[in-house]
Amino acid sequence: MDRYGMQNQIACIRRSLFDQGYLDEQFIQLEELQDDANPNFVQEIVTLFYTDSTRLIQNIELTLTSRPTNFSKLDDYMHQFKGSSSSIGAKKVTSECAVFRQYCAAGNAEACIRSFQHIKQEHAILRKKLEFYFQMMGQAAVAQTT
Amino acid sequence: MNVSSVKGSMSISSSTSTWKAGDTISDQFPAGLRVLVVDDDPTCLMILEKMLIACLYKVTKCNRAETALSKLRENKNGYDIVLSDVHMPDMDGFKLLEHIGLEMDLPVIMMSADDGKQVVMKGVTHGACDYLIKPVRIEALKNIWQHVVRKRKNEWKEFEQSGSVEEGDRQPKQSDDADYSSSANEGNWKGSKKRKDEEEETDERDDTSTLKKPRVVWSVELHQQFVAAVNQLGIDKAVPKKILELMNVPGLTRENVASHLQKYRLYLRRLSGVSQHQSNLSTIISAQDPTFGSLSSLSGLDLQTLAATGQLPAQSLARLQAAGLGRATAISGIPITLVDQRNIFSFENPKLRFGEGQQQHMTNKQQVNLLHGIPSTMEPKQLVSLRHAAQSIGNMNMQVPPHGAQSSQNNPLLMQMGQQQQQQQQQQQSRGQILVDSTINHAPRLSSSMGQPILSNGIATNVSSRNGIPENIRAPGYSQTPSMLNFPMNHASELPGNSFALGSTPGVSILTSKGAFQEDVNSEIKGSGGLMPSYDVFNDLNQHKPQSWELQNVGMAFDTSQHSNSLQGNLDLTQSALGQQGFSSGQMNGHNRSAAVASKAMFSTGDVKELGSAQNVNQHLNNLLVDNTIRVKSERVCDTSPANIFPDHFGQDDLMSALLKQQESVASSENEFDFDGYSMNNIPV
């Protein structure tokens, strides 16, 4: 694919991520921070997020499965998770976290578990999409240099 | 930074000191602003760091609160602002906020994904200067430098406004402390003032103030040290660095001292700015402490004494001193000094005083009113005589307390004063004297006069509580607050219900003279315990509440609310002194208490013979307070008509009114002085 074609494709991917609600404007903030000094800033951040959030997810899962359900701990973790995901602009993940917290505040363990499944799903979906996106960008960059 | 005022330079210097050479404030600011960002989330931390760098700030990041604290501690002047997350595993963000405020007094911005009102409110009350909701946008970070500037600016401004603002704050909204404005102000009393505003504290201000006060707490003792150091160096030559060295208090920074000094200077300036009363005061003061203006000496003495005894909140003392210092240097030993001081203070609180013009006259009356409690028969002329007596006593008192040596001398001084007065006047004076003292000493002598006024207050309160005489005193609409001598103060204007502002205004009762003073003081000191005067008295009278009083005073010093507190402090004292003679004033938030104590004190200290019972005293007090028309109906209180003691001690009136006003405002119109249950608990410490 030619350079422009690739760039177009990347632009389309990017736009769809926003249009479909996977990303919000916080992601744009990250993009704006990227410059020549940090050409891969966005990717670095996203990678960092996924590393950290995986750990968080594991903690949450452990807490969810233990009985009695420690809602305050769950809330804590989720608060953290939400903060993290919102800072990279992961829109769907963040809103699902909010739902979880509501159930958690209500003490509804079942609903929390279900909600958490959604969170994990969204989390995974976004990851794939972003990985693809970055991959394309990487290819485009390579294409540009060639 | 626009620190241009007197001590503006101080603040500037302190602020500039924090801004290292690298940070060229003028050209590049806010570039180079040294930011410390703390967040346990690595993603957020990295994003923030990048954003801050994009804003051209100099960023240091930590992922743990402990690390951040140690970084701050090892390099106190190395940072200009701190950004901290609320939820952190090792330490709560608010706790970190408090630590920073206390130790380094830097502006702190909290961040959280939580945008719940409670959490944001918590940030406010803990002193955060801003609260950002995550995800944080770079736009929000671009302006954080404003907090640094504002903080520095406010430190200076607070000092300046401490008196007037307090008054204003106190009056309009009792609950408004207006003390603490910026979150991390150095020196509690000034800073707290502004913050208090935010906090909306009433008499219970103390509660709120205790909520968040990371900054340096200028306790009475600390303030005493500060004042002693300043005196030693000379008010003109006192620079924070030297003061700090002299004080030799571990953990105290130059910035703390600088901001406190600013406040103190404002206070002094304010004192000098007061009207003629000041001159009176100053004369008296000068007798004592030539170093400062006459006023200052007085205040210094009293203040110190008061402060020493802990009765006078350090800030109040400083304030008074400052006032004294600032005030008329020409005060010639007029006994009115106290009154003047009162006036001075009340001066600052225009509301408090009724009209300065008439204060003189009024003060007499008012004072009388105040003293009413004591000698129930205080008639206007009595008041006048009281005033005189008070003045003279004030003089005496003033001289007595050696500058700075007061700490434990407050009581004795007060007693002395009372005694002196009695000797001098031999009228029912014991009471009157006390009252007088209080009024006179009110301003400068918090310590000595406190004892006195407190008595009167106490009496007043007693009266109210007990007898019901309050009606006499209660000036228009003032129903009970006999204890609040302040009553008279507010008399003209405030009487309605205020007159006994006692009831409403904490601490009004007791020291009507004091009260006034206190109010003034409070306003001066930012509400730091207008009770200062009573502070001494109470101490003397009944030691058991000195702490509470102190506490109150301390608290009060810090914010306008303190005004009420001080009153309460007085109340406490009086209470104890009075042995709780039905000091219902307690209700006033402790104001009454002081009144009660005062009355009690009166009994104990003064040979309030007539008093026979606190009731009488109270009655008298009430009478006094009631309306300036001293209708001391209480026949009981026969002789010692404090009124006599206070000759035209308008200062007292002013003070009283000021105090009353304060009380009123402070007490948030708790005019119900029904001092039934003098509950010391009210003392918002």
Explain what this protein looks like in three dimensions.
The complex is a heterodimer of chains A (about 150) and B (about 675). Chain A has about 150 residues and is mostly helical. Chain A has a single domain, classed as Four Helix Bundle (Hemerythrin (Met), subunit A) (Up-down Bundle). In chain A, about 85% of the residues lie in helices and about 0% in strands. Chain A has 6 helices and no strands. In chain A, helix 3 runs antiparallel to helix 4. Chain A is elongated and about 60 Å long. The two termini of chain A are about 10 Å apart. Chain B is mainly alpha-helical and about 675 residues long. Among the domains of chain B are: about 35-160, 3-Layer(aba) Sandwich (Rossmann fold); about 220-270, Orthogonal Bundle (Arc Repressor Mutant, subunit A), CATH 1.10.10. Chain B is built from 32 helices and 6 strands. Chain B has helices spanning about 10-20, 40-55, 65-75, 95-105, 115-125, 140, 145-170, 190-200, 205-210, 220-235, 240-245, 255-275, 275-290, 295-310, 315-325, 335-350, 355-370, 380-400, 410-425, 430-440, 445-465, 470-475, 485-500, 500-505, 510-525, 530-540, 545-560, 560-580, 590-605, 615-625, 640-645, 650-665, and strands spanning about 35-40, 60, 80-85, 110, 130-135, 180. Chain B has a 5-stranded parallel β-sheet with strand order 2-1-3-4-5, sandwiched between helices. In chain B, helix 2 (about 40-55) links the parallel strand 1 (about 35-40) and strand 2. Chain B starts with 7 loop residues before the first helix and ends in a 19-residue tail after the last helix. At the A-B interface, helix 2, helix 3 and helix 4 of A face helix 2 of B.
